[in-house]
Design brief:
There is one protein chain. This protein is α/β, with parallel strands linked by helices. Helices cover 41% and strands 16% of the residues. The chain has an eight-stranded mixed sheet, with helices on both faces. Strands 5-12-7-8-15 form a five-stranded mixed sheet. Strands 13-14 form a two-stranded antiparallel sheet. α2 links the parallel β2 and β3.
């Protein structure tokens, strides 16, 4: 029987985290799921993975190793290309998913859903020490959920993303932490030469998918838990380390620095790499209308809010590309973004520090690893049938 779901995992030098994902996967009984591991490790950990797989002897696990150093996007492309399931979800080696996904993919397939975005839970590994909320280290962060399904018009989303300068993934469809029909993913690849036509695979894939989707839904249930380990993008962001020179980031495509958009400040951060990836995806799909609507002023304001240490480069880029009238808009956006950030941290402080029962809509549950996270969710939080 063919797989209804392919879980693809591009990995590099993070065997410690992958081990817990493997242990969870082999405990799943369903035969209609497969696990694709695309390994680009160069630290010797590949031999440990192979030893584990030999011991598990699980024919649902397909392991591929490539010694040649490639970019994160290339590793993701290889992983997705190996999938044979009706649906595909891509997760990191420090993430975890719910075994209930298999049964729900059968339901979604019958309903004709081409893409599903779940309400994502988060897990902060205990090797991450957040700057602001240290109590979140080693905790599963679970939002309230209802199981309700909402339809989303994917075609309108690229304009929404360009209106904020590509600085947030928002509710874009995506294979990373989302569930996408393999036939739709293949359409993206056939037209773009990549499933993820940009240096940040998640948002580049999300922008590209919008061109091909007609039946996209959001499901308010935490089928996938995003892990934040010490050397992941999320973990670095929580610790204030998600910054670097573009040329020094080995996970980026080799030509990324050479082809960097001149209107985006030249450094690597969560803000700049998202904006760069949105532009690259739009160009690869010839989405001229969306490109022309790209809000550079908002993007510069976001850079100043989140990447203040690079303010000199940001100001120089603004001076080169923005006239005096539009510069006033940057000030307005800066105030707006900063105000929203203050409100967010105030709310988070009240929830995590004061433990106010009226405000506390999140549950922070201690967990040592993603295997424990999966078992907590499987035991305590049953999917809502529909």
């Amino acid at each position: 029987m063919n797989a209804i779901l392919s879980v693809v995992v591009p990995t590099k030098n993070r065997y410690f985290y992958l081990d817990f994902l493997l242990r969870y996967f082999v405990s799943i009984e369903s035969k209609r799921i497969e696990l694709i591991i695309q390994d680009n490790s160069d630290d010797g950990s590949s031999e440990k993975i192979k030893a584990d797989l030999k011991r598990y002897n699980d024919i649902r696990i397909h392991y591929y190793q490539l010694d040649e150093e490639i970019s994160q996007t290339e590793n993701c492309d290889l992983a997705i290309s190996r999938a044979s399931g009706e649906y595909v979800t891509m997760i990191g080696d420090d993430d975890i998913f719910s075994k209930h996904l298999v049964d729900y993919c059968k339901i979604w397939n019958d309903k004709g859903y081409e893409a599903v975005l779940p309400n994502k839970a988060s897990y902060v590994w205990n090797d991450v020490k957040p700057r602001l909320y240290k109590s979140m280290s080693g905790a599963l962060l679970l939002k309230e959920y209802t199981g309700v399904i909402s339809s989303i018009d994917a075609t309108s989303l690229p304009m929404k993303i360009t209106s904020i300068g590509g600085t947030s993934i928002s509710n874009l469809p995506r294979v990373y932490h989302g569930i996408i029909k393999k036939t739709i993913l293949d359409k993206v690849y056939n037209d773009c030469g990549s499933y993820c036509p940009g240096p940040s695979p998640d948002i580049a894939n999300g922008i590209a998918l919008c061109k091909y989707l007609t039946n996209y839904v959001y499901v308010d249930y935490p089928f996938i838990t995003s892990g934040q380990c010490q050397n992941s993008a999320g973990g670095k962001g929580a610790q204030g380390h998600h910054y670097a020179e573009v040329r020094d980031v080995s996970q980026l495509p080799k030509d990324c620095a050479l082809n960097w958009d001149k209107k985006i400040p030249f450094y690597w951060s969560g803000t700049t790499i998202y904006s760069e990836s949105v532009l690259k995806a739009l160009k690869s799909l010839n989405m001229t209308k969306e490109l022309n609507s790209f809000n550079y002023e908002y993007m510069y304001a976001a850079c100043l809010v989140f990447d203040w240490r690079y303010r000199s480069r940001i100001y120089k880029t603004i001076i080169k590309n923005i006239d005096e009238l539009k510069a006033y808009m940057i000030t307005w956006y800066f105030i707006s973004i900063m105000s929203a950030r203050v409100r967010f941290h105030l709310k988070t402080y009240l929830i995590t520090k004061l433990k106010n029962k009226i405000l506390n809509k999140n549950q922070n549950i201690p967990a040592s690893n993603t295997l424990q996270v999966a078992r907590i969710l499987d035991r305590e939080f049953k999917p809502i049938n529909y």
